[in-house]
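wait is this the right file?? whatever heres the structure
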């Protein structure tokens, strides 16, 4: 899990760098734009983690028809 987080941070840094170069590079980059992008990435990663946990719970449960028949 820690390696996943480290790679995620690397991906975020690469994305921010690429956005900075598209925005004109160097000092002209809008830091608020970077912050918005990183905030959205963090939100999406949290949502992904939540959905993965929920999917894991669903995979561990028995079929509904089996439970209803009892």
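ok assuming it is, sequence goes like this
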């Amino acid at each position: 899990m820690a390696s996943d987080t480290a790679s995620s941070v690397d991906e975020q840094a690469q994305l921010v760098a690429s956005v900075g170069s598209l925005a004109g590079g160097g000092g002209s980059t809008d830091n608020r734009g970077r912050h918005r992008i990183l905030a959205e990435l963090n939100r999406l990663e949290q949502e992904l983690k939540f959905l993965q946990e929920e999917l894991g719970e669903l995979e561990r449960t028995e079929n509904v028809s089996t439970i209803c028949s009892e």
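The helical segments are 2-22, 31-60, 64-69. so i think its the right one actually
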